[in-house]
Write a structure and sequence with these properties.
Layout lengths: L19 H10 L1 H8 L5 E7 L7 E7 L3
Antiparallel strand pairs: 1-2
Length: 67
């Protein structure tokens, strides 16, 4: 991971009813997410969505490099 220590995932909270495309747009507007999305060192991404609870809809992405 580009020499950085692993960090706790930071969920982004899209507006209720937003699409996957809107969520990706939000990530591309976030400097940290954009850098990771465009980083060729990462070979895989995992995406999770949780609906409901105290945070409403929460979307998270985790980037990994597979050997």
């Amino acid at each position: 991971m580009s020499g950085e220590a692993p960090r706790k995932p930071e969920p982004r909270k899209p507006e209720r009813g937003s699409s996957a495309g809107e969520t990706l747009s939000m990530w591309m507007e976030s400097q940290g997410h954009r850098v990771n999305i465009l980083n060729p060192a990462f070979t895989h991404a995992g995406v999770g969505v949780s609906c409901g609870g105290s945070y409403g809809t929460t979307t998270i992405v985790i980037f990994v490099k597979r050997n």
